[in-house]
């Protein structure tokens, strides 16, 4: 803790921006054009936390960690700040973008100079945190706990404060044992702990017996791991075979904190634990996090991260709309009136194409206006013409880098272009992707809402702004609650010409598609229809998706913005599986887990057997295919570390259990769980083994869930982590848990051992 404190003090002493942030600033927190409240913001002494409160005396304060902030945007680079652009100049405005699905924080400083201090200071703090090694991160975490426990702020902790700290840390320790640790750490015999004494107390408190046991099993002298010891651990413990000698030397160099041990080419228990807690010791193979897949295959060969009504922050009827929900590569928009505003870049880090799915409810004249706006605002980014040399196949993500593709109805095909407006026969076709039409067809919505919609009026009070963003952001005024009348609709040539490779067509049958469909045509299915096709003709569905794109969207009844299980659709090779990104839960965990691999670029290459027209794969019968090789996955759940409290009631300690879920083809769907541990969220021990047979490992996702057991009510969620089976690292691994909205909750983790064996 002392080292991190000194580093922070040095940073403050040498940086005027951080000094200014520590003094604090009164800034406006902006949620809308009408909601602008003054708040006092200040950087705390740890240089890792921002503290803020209302100007009014007596109001409770709030804090957030610098580690929760992903980026800082200057100027009017959010929908909210754009709405007040006429009140405040851009040089006074900035946005803090949080990780996961947490909403952003829009701020207006009193002056341009003050805004710059915060922008530059925040960016420096983010950079410092990103450059921290594992030891420094742990020191920072200890420092945070010290400040929480030091109630009177005197830089010391008496025993009462230590007892309160243990409760905050989810530790149920008897008073005698706690006092014994306190006395051992109190080297100065002052009756309080300060600085390094608290670090010693923490080390005794967090001594990992299970890690020490593994360390000693491989240590020749019981004190350190020699290079040879470490090689043996890598082979037997981590199940690695290649380059273990070189790897063992690299691990010592990178993670061993003792220079003396380094000189002897040995690793101490501290270095061993740091390695196991590092990204290299994580369950997610770091090599799979990098972009490593072939990006030169046709679009139909990839799963594409996709959203449904991305702009909504809540449910489908009353949900507030915002462009801040965007984090996907296929965005659906229902457009009933072509009003457009300009917006800036929204942190879309990948250069691979974005597909803008238009559900068109505009008149022919309005469509022309919309096409003009699309062309003017998106410019060269909007794909207007077919690529040369791509006459019979969809282009690849690599071919389409930096492009935006429009998905919608089109006059004719790529082979020819018709003049004018198409009426009657072509215009009469109502897209199979209209959510409102799906509600009517299934007769699932209540009569009052249906009646209001049939009358052609908006039955909700939702704002009429929705958005899409990538480098340039397009914001289209729309009404989510569109009319469900299936009236004939013309299509303007101007809008038609904006659609190239994603022509929306009605799906008739797989046989019809094999004979008549073009590679650039795309059909959309509500989840219930997709499930029926999978059940009736799973292999044909997979075959269809080899050459053509398919979009799946939630049933119309999901007005609460709930989600369906995307894994079922991926198992049929469906590329564009649209979810309500604003709704946290298992479904979004699976989506995040799948698309975390391959550099988070939004595209994941489908398995080889789902990319060939010559091969047959039926998700209902996975054993009937070439190359069928099931595997056995054995997971030993060993322990948990510093699990967060879910019940803030004083004295409450969690009773954690771990559930492991396999999500894949129907035959692979499985879940098993450990027993619960009474009153221990700090260092629960399970030492339980769970075994799964996986028939299609190429499609499987593994989800780890930690819950607080309750025998009378539903268990409370503590944390989760989801990843593709193909990204698992074998051996002793830590699983760094995520919150419900997908953000990290350091240092909460699970410690497991993973073994994969071919065959059952």
Automatic annotation (TrEMBL):
One Pfam family per UniProt: PI-PLC-Y
Origin: domain of life: Eukaryota
EF-hand domain span: 137-172, 173-208
Domain PH, residue spans: 19-127
EC number: 3.1.4.11
Cofactor(s) in the UniProt record: Ca(2+)
Gene Ontology MF: a single term: phosphatidylinositol-4,5-bisphosphate phospholipase C activity
Any one of the GO CC terms: plasma membrane
Catalysis performed (reactions): a 1,2-diacyl-sn-glycero-3-phospho-(1D-myo-inositol) + H2O = 1D-myo-inositol 1-phosphate + a 1,2-diacyl-sn-glycerol + H(+); a 1,2-diacyl-sn-glycero-3-phospho-(1D-myo-inositol-4,5-bisphosphate) + H2O = 1D-myo-inositol 1,4,5-trisphosphate + a 1,2-diacyl-sn-glycerol + H(+)
GO BP annotations listed: intracellular signal transduction; lipid catabolic process
Compartments it resides in: Cytoplasm; Endoplasmic reticulum; Membrane; Nucleus
Domain PI-PLC Y-box, residue spans: 495-611
UniProt KW Calcium keyword: yes
Membrane topology category: Peripheral membrane protein
Top EC class of this enzyme: hydrolase
Segments forming domain C2: 618-739
PROSITE patterns recorded: C2, EF_HAND_1, EF_HAND_2, PH_DOMAIN, PIPLC_X_DOMAIN, PIPLC_Y_DOMAIN
Keywords of this entry: Calcium, Cytoplasm, Endoplasmic reticulum, Hydrolase, Lipid degradation, Lipid metabolism, Membrane, Metal-binding, Nucleus, Repeat, Transducer
Annotated protein name in UniProt: Phosphoinositide phospholipase C
Taxonomic source organism: Astyanax mexicanus
Highest classification ranks of the organism: Eukaryota, Metazoa, Chordata, Craniata, Vertebrata
């Amino acid at each position: 803790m002392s080292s991190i404190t000194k580093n922070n003090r040095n940073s403050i002493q040498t940086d005027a921006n951080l000094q200014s942030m520590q003094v604090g600033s009164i800034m406006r927190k902006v949620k809308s054009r009408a909601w602008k409240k003054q708040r006092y913001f200040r950087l705390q002494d740890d240089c890792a936390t921002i503290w803020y409160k209302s100007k009014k005396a007596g109001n409770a304060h709030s804090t957030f960690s610098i580690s929760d902030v992903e980026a800082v945007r200057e100027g009017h680079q959010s929908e909210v700040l754009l709405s007040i652009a006429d009140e405040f100049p851009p040089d006074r405005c900035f946005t803090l973008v949080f990780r996961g699905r947490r909403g952003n924080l829009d701020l207006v400083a009193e002056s341009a100079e003050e805004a710059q201090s915060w922008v530059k200071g925040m960016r420096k703090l983010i950079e410092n945190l990103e450059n921290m090694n594992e030891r420094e991160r742990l020191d920072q975490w200890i420092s945070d706990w010290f400040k929480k426990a030091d109630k009177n702020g005197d830089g010391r902790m008496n025993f009462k404060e230590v007892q309160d700290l243990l409760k905050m840390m989810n530790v149920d320790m008897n008073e005698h044992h706690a006092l014994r640790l306190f006395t051992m750490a109190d080297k100065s015999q002052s009756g309080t702990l300060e600085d390094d004494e608290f670090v010693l107390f923490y080390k005794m408190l967090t001594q990992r017996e299970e890690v020490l046991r593994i360390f000693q099993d491989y240590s020749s002298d019981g004190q350190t791991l020699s290079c040879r010891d470490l090689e043996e651990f890598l082979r037997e413990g981590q199940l690695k075979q290649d380059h273990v000698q070189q790897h063992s030397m690299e691990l010592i160099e990178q993670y061993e904190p003792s220079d003396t041990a380094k000189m002897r080419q040995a690793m101490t228990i501290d270095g061993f634990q740091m390695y196991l807690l590092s990204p290299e010791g994580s369950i997610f193979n770091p090599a799979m996090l990098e972009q490593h897949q072939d990006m030169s295959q046709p679009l139909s060969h990839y799963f594409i991260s996709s959203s449904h009504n991305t702009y909504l922050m809540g449910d489908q009827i009353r949900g507030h709309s915002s462009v801040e929900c965007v984090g996907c590569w296929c965005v659906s928009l229902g457009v009933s009136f072509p009003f457009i505003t300009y917006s800036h870049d929204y942190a879309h880090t990948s250069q691979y194409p974005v597909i803008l799915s238009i559900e068109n409810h505009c008149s022919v004249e309005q469509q022309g206006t919309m096409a003009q706006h699309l062309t003017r605002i998106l410019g060269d980014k909007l794909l207007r013409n077919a690529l040369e040399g791509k006459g019979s196949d969809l282009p690849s993500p690599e071919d389409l880098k930096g492009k935006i593709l429009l998905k919608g109805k089109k006059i004719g095909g790529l082979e020819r272009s018709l003049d004018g407006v198409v009426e009657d026969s072509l215009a009469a076709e109502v897209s199979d992707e209209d959510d409102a039409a799906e509600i009517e067809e299934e007769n699932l919505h209540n009569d009052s809402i249906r009646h209001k919609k049939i009358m052609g009026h908006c039955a909700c009070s939702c704002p009429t702004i929705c958005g899409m963003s990538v480098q340039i952001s397009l914001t289209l005024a729309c009404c989510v609650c569109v009319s469900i009348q299936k009236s004939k609709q013309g299509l303007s040539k101007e809008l038609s010409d904006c659609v190239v490779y994603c022509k929306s067509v009605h799906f008739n049958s797989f046989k019809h598609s094999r004979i008549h469909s073009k590679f650039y045509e795309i059909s959309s299915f509500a989840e219930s229809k997709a499930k029926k096709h999978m059940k009736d003709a799973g292999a044909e569905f997979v075959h269809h998706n080899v050459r053509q794109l398919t979009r799946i969207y939630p049933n119309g009844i999901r007005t609460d913005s709930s989600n369906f299980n995307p894994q079922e659709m991926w198992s049929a090779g469906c590329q564009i599986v649209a979810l309500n990104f604003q709704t946290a839960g298992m479904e979004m965990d699976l989506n995040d887990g799948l698309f975390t691999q391959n550099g988070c670029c939004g595209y994941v290459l489908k398995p080889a057997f789902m990319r060939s027209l010559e091969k047959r794969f039926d998700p209902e019968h996975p054993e009937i295919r070439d190359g069928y090789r099931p595997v056995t996955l054995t997971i030993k759940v060993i322990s948990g570390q510093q699990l967060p409290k879910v019940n803030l009631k004083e004295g409450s300690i969690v009773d954690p259990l771990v559930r492991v879920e396999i999500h894949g083809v129907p035959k692979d769907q499985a879940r098993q769980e450990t027993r619960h541990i009474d009153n221990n969220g700090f260092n629960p021990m399970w030492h339980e083994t769970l075994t799964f047979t996986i028939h299609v490992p190429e499609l499987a996702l593994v989800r780890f869930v930690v819950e607080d057991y309750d025998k009378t009510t539903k268990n409370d969620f503590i944390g989760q982590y989801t990843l593709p089976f193909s990204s698992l690292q074998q051996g002793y691994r830590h699983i760094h848990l995520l919150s419900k909205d997908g953000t990290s909750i350091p240092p909460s983790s699970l410690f497991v051992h993973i073994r994969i064996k071919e065959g059952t």
